[in-house]
Amino acid sequence: MAAMIGLAVTLILFPLAGCTLGRRSIGEAFLFGAGLTGSVLFIAGVVHVPLVIAMVLILIWGVGTAVWQLRRGSRPPSMSYPRLATMLMVLPFIALTFVAAITPLNDFDGRAFWVLKAKEIARERAIDGPSFKAVTLDPRKNHYPILIPLDGAVILGIAHDFDDRQLRWFYLGVLAALALLVRERIGRLVSPPAGAWCAALLVWIPQFSVEAEGGALSAYNDLAIAAFAAGAFFEVAEEVSPSATAKRRDFGAIRFGLWLAFLVLTKSEGLPFAMVFLAVGAFVFRKRITSSAIVAGIAAVALFIWRTRIPPGDEEDILRLLPTIPQKLHNVRAALTAFPRHMLLMPHWGLFWIAVIIAAALALRNDQRNATLAISVIAAMLAVYVLVYVATAWVVADLIAVTADRLLMHVIAPSLFLLALNARSR
Amino acid sequence: MSGRWLTRIAAALLFVSLAASTLPRLIALVNDARTLLPLPYEARRERQMGPWYVSIEKLRRELPPNEPVALITTRRDIDSAAFANYYLFPRHTKLFIGRNSYRNAAYDPTKPKTIAVATGNHVERITYDGLRDRELRSGTRVVSAPELSEPSTTFVLPLAASLDGPPPGTFVIEATLANPNPVPAEVRVTFWPKGLRRTIVIPPRTTTTYYDFVYQLFAIMNSGWMRVESSQPLRAAFYFANRGRGDATLMPNAAADATRIAPAPLHRDTKLFVINPKETRATVILNGESIPLDPHAFLSRPIETLPAVSGNVYAFVTTRELNGRTDFVWPQ
């Protein structure tokens, strides 16, 4: 029963916070709320506003907006989805919820870095407290962005309990919210059946559902990156889509910028990912991309300011490693083959990537504009990751072995979109 | 077949390929959860992580919530230390790879006094001396083929120590006691000037070895001199060894008085040692100054040059070379 507080906070707080900038579907509201809560707390921490005060303000704002919108009776447009697809989507969640409620966290990165940071922030009520300044704790991965640990700290703080059982729901919630976002957005952009089936496929991908390192039962941040990237991708896709409503388009660039800010503050890969999105988004949003860049830029600047205040850990500084690429050309072959090899790992991905590649080829013929958008995001991001593999100071084979599948998670939304495009073209 | 059906078949194939991998693992996870369900939450962690987590729970019970902890581990077991750090929260921990990195932090004000050693199998609280002993025990002795003395019943070690120098200096006495007799030898070892006494028995025709004679017998880290008395003649070798550097010096038997130290090059940290191995008071004369010594006394003094020493005592000099090796200048 103790973990029920964490469940209640997860289910109420983040969707409420997500409604602060307009009513949206529950999945999107959860992700938007998680991103917004973490980002606002992070920036509050950087400018030394007490985190508790920032949290209370978010809560008041969230509740106020929710009440106001309920009174107005504004609701996101509802769609009807195929029952079978919905049932198939729900089934793994029933099992995963049962497992998350009972089994303790037993992953690597979650315990070694992310949840530990959440506990430290919850205890110190600061993002540059003694733990981060390495006065007392070893600064392993000290410069990792901390949006998700901040969300975790909120849950731990409200629950008055530092046990990781309080956080198990959050990560499961991110997968559920991502599935709902995929269902709703692809449903709107392509067709409700396509959205429902893509969401069902997503939750049955082993890497997302049952994989011990990176899945919904772990406390890795790759799921959150995949979700925020999905949010950003769908904003661009919606902008491209002729069916998008003019009203959504008005704030599309701002929302896009917010998703990018969430990416920047969630994981180190988020910054290059945001830059790729900005480059792609510039063709779509045109002049309005400036507002997206400003929002994402604020997050990036805040991240850099925060990093200057705390000592670095043992994380790699990829920018400094880039000039060493000429000496590491022997890594090129392993880096180039990393993703194709991992895409074919059946226990992690089934036939998913084979289907995506075929779907991409077909979609290029049938819906070139949307297909190009999705392929360019996937290709650009994987190219960035290949570059990192070449430049790394780690043993490249070891790094690929532990990261490639998780990095593939990041481009799940454009990949599912390609599958969906193919369904529409038929 | 229409394109619509082709799409449906492709989607079904894709779904089956995913479910074929996910479903069995999902079922296994649910079954695992069902077996854990009747247990309290901490017991579930014990079941998941085994004895390692039990050791963490024990450590948490032993330590106050605000007690900072030095987690000492090896490169191989660094993950274990990272997880120990996680489960010891809210206790502040500081990670050290090996005993020497802990020693190197001697002047770090944040260095925790409480030590826990983290391995892949368990995490446990330990004293510094215990940690050092564990490391020395698991390593190899500096001298693999000791030069044994002629049989004798009494040995006087002019210097017996279990001490740390500047890292990685780790000083020990490596002892080898061989009993060539057909009867057991009862050996009485006395560590002076503290007067600590231990009796050990060496079975007939057996050789007993010690990697850290002083600590193994008396469980202290200290220095002094030592008298070894056996009921049977023993062949023995006692080396003053620096395990950190891997060098060793054979100790002479200082049973008789000797003070005439031959001229030798002196380097740094040079010290004169004088011991009075007798049961009566003695007097040592240092550069004309007469100094009375109690029975079993152990005197050490830093020196710049070799002094003139005389008296009914045993005197010798140690000096440290630039490379860290300790040289002994014994009396003739």
| Average of pLDDT of chain B | 93
By secondary-structure content and strand pairing, the structural class of chain B works out as alpha+beta
Spans of at least 5 consecutive residues with low confidence of chain A: none
Tell me the β content of chain B: 35-45%
The description of the largest β-sheet of chain A is: none
Cα shape of chain A: globular
Oligomerization state:
heterodimer
Distance between the termini of chain B: 107 Å
The count of DSSP E runs of length 2 or more, i.e. the number of strands of chain B, is 19
Mean pLDDT of chain A: 91
Number of strands of chain A: 0
Radius of gyration of chain A: 20 Å
CATH level 1 name of the largest domain in chain B: Mainly Beta
Q: What is the helical fraction of chain A, as a range of percent?
A: over 70%
TL;DR?
The complex is a heterodimer of chains A (426) and B (332). Chain A has 426 residues and is mostly helical.
Describe this protein with a few key phrases:
heterodimer, A: 426 residues, mainly alpha, globular, B: 332 residues, alpha+beta, Hypothetical Protein Tm1070, Chain: A, 4 domains, 8-stranded antiparallel β-sheet, 4-stranded mixed β-sheet, 7 helices, 19 strands, 37% strand, elongated
